[in-house]
């Protein structure tokens, strides 16, 4: 049962927006009395700039890019970098590598990283190239020196925190707005959403859950009251070759894009970072392994698969219970 919401700090709702991480962001904010809209926009952009400077593998000067290009050795990292990396490694351990922050070389090999798409005449890498990329990957091979806050670069390893960084950015922006007194807000970055508090009319932040292209199912609308949601889908970034779709979600177990008929996974969690990570992990696990794992973890998750008959949805008990609660609240 959710706790009763507190009254928003004012009767205003400001709409803010911008660009970050190769996508767009937007915010609907109930400002504290005396707030300045330009200052609040600047505060959001400052948090997003910090995330890019730490974790973007597309930004050559980011801390992550500097580590990826560093020679072998132990390198001291900032506290912010350390915190997100260790959180990602914890998730990798919990999911047996379904989320793995060390797969940058494999992601690059398949044409989904900063080097860009593969040549049109050679779209699929060879088994030998995949094996070589995997040889410098693997979360269990990443060594940490906790006393020195150091991370060992074994040589050639490339970190990629894409499975967690965007959700982390949502959480950072939400926390910054809390500090600014804007305790009621809805944040969206590239499809990842988080709602805090309620609107001035007492209604929660209602959002429509993203559905895969071509779906004829009735759209689901949910209340994000101190809750985040993330969707991982094979339709977002992919390429076609000889009638097969190669999505950007890579399995560290095979070094290849996932290929099990799972179209999308949507996950709710109190933290956007965790919703982001879990949606990726469950996508890698697939329609057979994923649902029982999500159930065992108590996750509110929806799996959409494709077969010869069309799209099929599987939801966890926690998802079903949450939908029933929202229907009652509505």
Describe the structure.
It is an enzyme of class 2 (transferase). Strand 13 (250-251) and strand 14 form a beta hairpin. The relative contact order is 0.13. The strands form 5 sheets. This protein has an 8-stranded antiparallel sheet with strand order 1-2-6-7-10-15-16-17. Strands 3-5-4 form a 3-stranded antiparallel sheet, with no helix packed on it. The protein has a two-stranded antiparallel sheet with strand order 8-9. With 330 residues, the chain is of the alpha+beta class. The chain folds into 3 domains: 8-57 and 161-192, T-fold (Roll), CATH 3.10.520.10; 67-159, T-fold; 204-330, T-fold. Helices cover 34% and strands 25% of the residues. It starts with 13 loop residues before the first strand and ends with a helix. Helix 1 runs antiparallel to helix 6 and helix 6 (162-179) packs across helix 7 (272-296). It has helices at residues 37-55, 63-68, 79-94, 104-109, 127-135, 162-179, 272-296, 317-329, and strands at residues 14-20, 23-30, 73-76, 144-145, 150-153, 184-189, 192-196, 206-208, 221-223, 227-233, 238-241, 244-247, 250-251, 256-257, 262-269, 300-307, 310-315.
